[in-house]
């Protein structure tokens, strides 16, 4: 484990992954999710949208169901069989009362001890801007958590993490690397249109290689998370 990152908490049984679009879990969290489900933990995916505007040249009515199917297939590869889509508009996700209410309802219904959400900062690195959907969704998750913690602290999860560049905690994922690659590659149509000149498997391997790169001189692959809230 990196000397600068704390071990991710282990005293939990149900985790809730909250993201904006299909493929969001796979770009950064899939390896950690595969480890957790392999340890017998329950992980639920909840997605604000169906990603219906995410494939160039495909109309939303066709794209949405396709991307939902790819997300479900991807989730199964890492041991997740509970996936829900909320129907908020792709490319139009905003931190609204309706979105915050849906987040709160889902947290109360699933009763997770830990939430994993999207990075909400403006840039991943200098010159690498974040998406507006991601920033708005992250803000909604934080606001919903804060409201819940204030009104019903017994229901608020113990931890809320974001998967982003300013990690505070890490999960070792050497053994889950190949599973994470297969999980991202399950978004076959999306990735094949995103970069038609690179095989999907190569795109997936390169992304997971970056997302799980060893840190601070450690030889071990890790998935990093930033602790945003705890109680």
Automatic annotation (TrEMBL):
The keyword Zinc applies. Keywords: Zinc. Gene3D superfamilies: LmbE-like. It comes from the Bacteria. Pfam families: PIG-L (PF02585). The keyword Cytoplasm does not apply. Residues 208-231 are annotated as: Disordered. PANTHER family: LMBE FAMILY PROTEIN, N-ACETYLGLUCOSAMINYL-PHOSPHATIDYLINOSITOL DE-N-ACETYLASE-RELATED. This is GlcNAc-PI de-N-acetylase. It comes from Gordonia paraffinivorans NBRC 108238. The lineage of its organism: Bacteria, Bacillati, Actinomycetota, Actinomycetes, Mycobacteriales.
């Amino acid at each position: 484990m990196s000397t600068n990152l704390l071990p991710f908490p282990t005293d939990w049984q149900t985790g809730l992954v909250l993201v904006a679009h299909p493929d969001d879990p796979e770009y950064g969290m899939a390896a950690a999710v595969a480890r957790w489900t392999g340890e017998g933990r329950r992980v639920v995916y909840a997605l604000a949208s169906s990603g219906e505007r995410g494939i160039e040249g495909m109309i939303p009515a066709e794209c949405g169901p396709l991307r939902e199917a790819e997300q479900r297939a991807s989730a199964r590869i890492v041991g997740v069989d509970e996936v829900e889509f909320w129907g908020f508009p792709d490319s139009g996700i905003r931190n609204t009362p309706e979105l915050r209410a849906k987040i709160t309802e889902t947290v109360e219904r699933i009763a997770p001890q830990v939430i994993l959400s999207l990075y909400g900062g403006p840039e991943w690195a200098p010159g690498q801007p974040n998406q507006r959907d991601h920033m708005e969704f992250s803000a909604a998750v934080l606001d919903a958590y804060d409201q819940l913690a204030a009104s019903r602290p017994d229901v608020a999860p113990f931890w809320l993490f974001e998967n982003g560049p300013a990690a505070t905690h890490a999960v070792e994922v050497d053994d889950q690397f190949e599973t994470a690659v297969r999980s991202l590659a399950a978004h076959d149509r999306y990735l094949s249109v995103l970069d038609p000149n690179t095989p999907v498997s190569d795109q997936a391997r390169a992304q997971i290689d970056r997302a799980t790169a060893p840190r601070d001189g450690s030889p071990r692959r890790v998935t990093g998370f930033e602790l945003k809230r705890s109680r």
